[in-house]
Design a protein that fits this description.
Elements: H1 2-17, H2 22-32, H3 38-44, H4 51-90, H5 109-123, E1 127-128, E2 134-136, H6 137-140, E3 166-168, H7 174-184, E4 191-200, E5 212-222, H8 227-242, E6 248-255, E7 258-267, E8 284-293, H9 295-300, E9 309-315, H10 317-325, H11 338-341
Parallel strand pairs: 1-4
Antiparallel strand pairs: 2-3, 4-5, 5-9, 6-7, 7-8, 8-9
Helix pairs in contact: 1-4, 5-10
The structure holds 3,4-dihydroxyphenylalanine (DAH).
3,4-dihydroxyphenylalanine is lined by residues 171, 173, 217, 255, 258, 289-291, 312-314.
Length: 344
């Protein structure tokens, strides 16, 4: 036993010398001093010795155990010092290295155009009014003079929800009714708002049509508002968006919620009116639909059409961007392809 004790001691010391990492320290500790370690096991056997040898053996064994514990501590300190020195050396900072360039994000082209459009209308006295994306069938159609079986409903293919009569708005026009209800609640007041937002249509996605797109709606309601106010206002908008010399023309059209209705075109800024693929050889580019608010729609909004009148318009920012930048496929807008987005 005595001999075995001394040989464990020598072996433990020798092993300790060969240790270089904290992991090895841990393993050594459990091998010799741990609960099932060699020193613990041999101490437990003290009882098997003849009584007269027990005291001496126990004393020496405890001494060895303490010596080993001290040796371990020293070795551990030394290893930690080396490890620290090594990590400082490896992780050395070269403060003269140039920094990594920050990559800046950019705004989506639709966001930029929406901001530009809002800015122009704001300068002309229009407030931004936010209406909801999820609409009631009644607001999207009926109150806009399209009763349930009106053929004009076919113009818009609609996303229905599982809730009866709850749909995704197919245009921003229902916001007109919501704005009128708000403004007429405490006695009727004049209105001058734009309503920007996302619209949704259950369409086949193609280069020309998407299932979601933005619109910016406009609504002015007051006393004595006339068609000439509408024409002058949209022409001024066009000049602010396309430049002061922009030529504008009006084309008679039809929308159920306006009467009379017209479409607004600007002279093609790409060919100057000569005719090119962007303007489909017509020399003109359509920028919005508009008209005088239909008396029925004014009434549905809480305004008496014998006293009040108004105009409305609706435009598509993505279409405007496409024409300005000769983008031929609307699907680029929501495809999140950086090769497209980074051009703006
Ligand atoms: N809501 C129409 C559409 O989605 C656009 C529009 C046309 C809005 C004429 C108007 C308007 O306010 O007066 O096609």
């Amino acid at each position: 036993m005595q001999e075995k004790l001394e040989s464990i001691y020598q072996k433990a010391l020798a092993d300790l010398e060969a240790i270089h990492t904290s992991e090895e320290v841990k393993a050594w500790d459990s091998r010799y001093l741990g609960r099932k370690g060699e020193m613990t096991l041999i101490l437990r056997q003290t009882g098997k010795l003849p009584p007269e040898e027990r005291a001496d053996f126990g004393k020496r064994a405890n001494e060895v155990k303490n010596l080993l514990a001290t040796a371990l501590e020293k070795r551990e300190a030394l290893i930690r010092e080396h490890e620290l020195a090594r990590s400082l050396e490896e992780g050395e900072l070269d403060v003269t290295l140039p920094g990594r360039p920050l990559t800046m994000g950019g705004l989506h082209p639709s966001t930029r155009m929406l901001r530009r459009i809002k800015e122009i209308w704001a300068d002309m006295g229009f407030q931004v009014y936010r209406s909801r994306d999820v609409e009631h069938d009644e607001y999207n159609f009926t109150l806009l003079n399209m009763p349930p079986h009106h053929p004009a409903r076919d113009m818009q293919d609609t996303f229905y929800t599982t809730q009866p009569n709850i749909i995704l708005r197919t245009h921003t026009s229902p916001g007109q009714i919501r704005a009128m209800h708000d403004y007429s609640e405490d006695g009727t007041r004049p209105i001058r708002v734009i309503l920007p937002g996302m619209c949704y249509r259950y369409e086949q996605i193609t280069a020309r049509s998407e299932i979601q797109f933005h619109q910016v709606e406009g609504l002015a309601v007051g006393k004595g508002i006339r068609m000439s106010d509408l024409k002058g206002t949209v022409a001024e908008f066009a000049r602010r968006l396309y430049g002061p010399d922009t030529e504008v023309r009006y084309r008679a059209s039809y929308f159920p919620f306006t009467e009379p209705s017209m479409e607004v075109d600007v002279k093609c800024h790409i060919c100057g009116g000569q005719g090119c693929p962007v303007c489909k050889r017509t020399g003109w580019i359509e920028i919005m639909g508009s008209g005088m608010v239909h008396p029925e729609v004014l009434r549905n909004g809480g305004y008496d059409p014998t006293e009040w009148s108004g105009f409305a318009f609706g435009m598509g920012p993505e279409r405007i961007i496409m024409n300005k930048n000769r983008i031929e496929d609307i699907r680029y807008f929501w495809a999140n392809d950086l090769r497209f987005l980074e051009q703006y």
